Every structure is written in structure tokens, then in C-alpha cells.
Amino acid sequence: MKPEKLSYFNGNITIDSDVCNGKPTIRGQRITVQTILEFLSAGESTEKILRAYPTLIKEDIQTCLAFATQLRVGCFPPKTPSKPKQKNKFVIIII
């Protein structure tokens, strides 16, 4: 069964298992949110990122930051449903 495609922020952030190994991307392009966040954390300016990725607009970079913030505080469901943890069962044998 193929996982469904997810989108957030009116489709500006998309998650598709067929694109970038299911990492969140910007509008389905092969530009990951992680890539943009790494540029920002390295001190790159928005203008420099936009020159490196001409298909992006300023709002895409702001959306990456908003997505990361919302993800951090747990506003989005996990990418894949987690399985319930199985409890260990112990058997005590008395002789």
C-alpha cells in the first residue's frame, strides 16, 4: 500500500514518499525544508538562498521556518503511524 501524500501550509510544504525520500519539500520541488534550514543556520541570507534556488520565493523560506516551529511543538502528526509498544509479559513458574 502506497502512503498518501501530505501537505501543510496550503500546499507549500509537501511530503511525498516519491520525492526526496519522503522528506518535507517546498511545493513538491526537490528542495527540502531541511536544506533551507541548514542554509539559514549557517548564516546565509534569504537573498543568497533565493539566488541559489531561483524557483523559490521569500515566503517559501518563511514557511520553512514556520513549519519547523510547528513541527517542534508537535502540531503535525508523524509521517508514518507508530505501532503501539508491545508490553513484555513475564511468566513466573513456581516449583
UniProtKB/TrEMBL annotation:
Gene3D superfamilies: Winged helix-like DNA-binding domain superfamily/Winged helix DNA-binding domain. InterPro entries: DUF433, Homeodomain-like_sf, WH-like_DNA-bd_sf. It holds the Pfam family DUF433. It comes from hydrothermal vent metagenome. This is Asr2958 protein.
